[in-house]
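Worked Example 4.2. Consider the chain below.
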Amino acid sequence: MSAPDPLIVAEAWAREGRGVALATVVETWGSAPRPAGSALAIDQDGRFEGSVSGGCVEGAVVAEAAEVIASGRPRMLEFGVADEAAWRVGLSCGGRIRVFVEKVG
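Applying the procedure from the previous section yields the following structure tokens:
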């Protein structure tokens, strides 16, 4: 059985009246654990479906998504081992990742 599509989940949550953001991997370098196009749906309560990094940066992306939901302004996030935030969020596997976070609905 396959996991639900995060875009479909995000749209369904938005129809329910929840504040929702969609985070999408737009670029990777090196050994980033998820390919471009991978997505994560996040609601205003911090619930999420999908993955942008196999667990490396999901917590940081969920936190940024709360700001995107509140402000309505999209954000481009970048994580990598050359970035001090990499060790804080756990992207020590090598590689870098760029994630675009936008409000849905």
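The beta strands are 20-29, 39-43, 48-50, 75-80, 96-104. The chain has one domain: 6-104. Compare this with Example 4.1 before moving on.
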